[in-house]
Amino acid sequence: MEIEIFKKDDRELKFLVTESSVPLVNALRRIFISEIPSMAVDYLKFYKNNSPVFDEIIAHRVGLIPLNNSSEIYIAPEDCGCSEGCEKCSVTLSLEKTGPCTVYSKDLVSDDSDVYPILENVPITKLTDGQDLKFDAIARIGTAEDHAKWQIANAAYKHVPKLDFNLDKCDFCEECIPICPKDILYKEKDEIKVKDIYECTMCRACEEVCEQGAIKVSHQKDSFIFFVESYENMDVNDLVSKALEMLSTKLDNLKNLVENI
Q: Which of 10, 13, 197, 239 has the fewest CB atoms within 10 Å of its CB?
C-alpha cells in the first residue's frame, strides 16, 4: 500500500491510496468511523431538573456533545473493575444552573482539564425564573460500534476514475465539455483533456452525451481516493496515525492466526 497526501487542513485530509484493494481500504474506513476509542458522556446523575425538558432528552443531548479525546490517559470500562466509573476510567463533568438563562455546553465543568467540550455553544436547554438544572455527567471511553456519540471521524473512499478517449471516433463536437458537472474537461488543439481526474465523480454524463462512443468512463482497480474528516476530538494527523496503527495490528494478528492453523 502506498499513500500520497494531496489535500490537508486542520480538520480534513484527502489522500491517494495505490497498490491496494477494496477489502483493505474498506477495513481502514470502518476503523475511522467505528473503532477508534474516544471519550463521551456515558450517563448522567440528576440532582435537580425542573426544566421543560425531560431527563432522558437532556442526557441524550449531553451525550452527543463532542469531548476532547483523552483515551490514552484513561482505561476502558471493561478493563476496569469498578461498576459505575472511577478516576481510572471516567471523568465527571458537573453542571449547575438557575434560570432565566440558556444552558450551553460551555457550562459543563470538568474535573480533568484534559477532557472538555470541543464546542462551547451547543445549547442543552432553556431555563426560566424558578427553574434549576443540576447534574453530573460521567464520561467514559467507548467506540462508535456501541453508540454514535463515540464516533470521532467520518471517512469515505472511491476508485480513482479513468477516462479513455478514442480520437478515431471523436469528431470534436465538444458536447462533453459543458455537460460535465465538475467542469474538468477542456479542448487543447485536437485533443480532449482532463484538468483534474481526481475531481471526476464517474457520473458518465460525458460518456452518455457522446453519440460517437468516443469516451469510456471506468476506474483503476488498485487505486483509491480516500477522504477523512475529523470531528475535532482528535487532530487529523493523530487520527490517521491511530487508524493505520490499528489496521497494522489487525493484519499482524490475522497473519499470526493463519500461521497457527
A: 10
Ranges of each domain in the chain: 2-35+154-227, 38-150
- CB burial of 177-190 (b: ≥16 within 10 Å; e: otherwise) equals eeebeeebbeeeee
- The amino acid occupying position 227 is F
d(CA 24, CA 257): 18
Residue-wise pLDDT for 56-91, tens only, equals: 999 999 999 999 877 677 777 777 777 677 777 888
Cα distance between residue 9 and residue 34, in whole Å: 22
CATH superfamily, domain at 2-35+154-227? RNA polymerase, RBP11-like subunit (3.30.1360.10)
- Residue 129: phi and psi, rounded to 5, are -55, 130
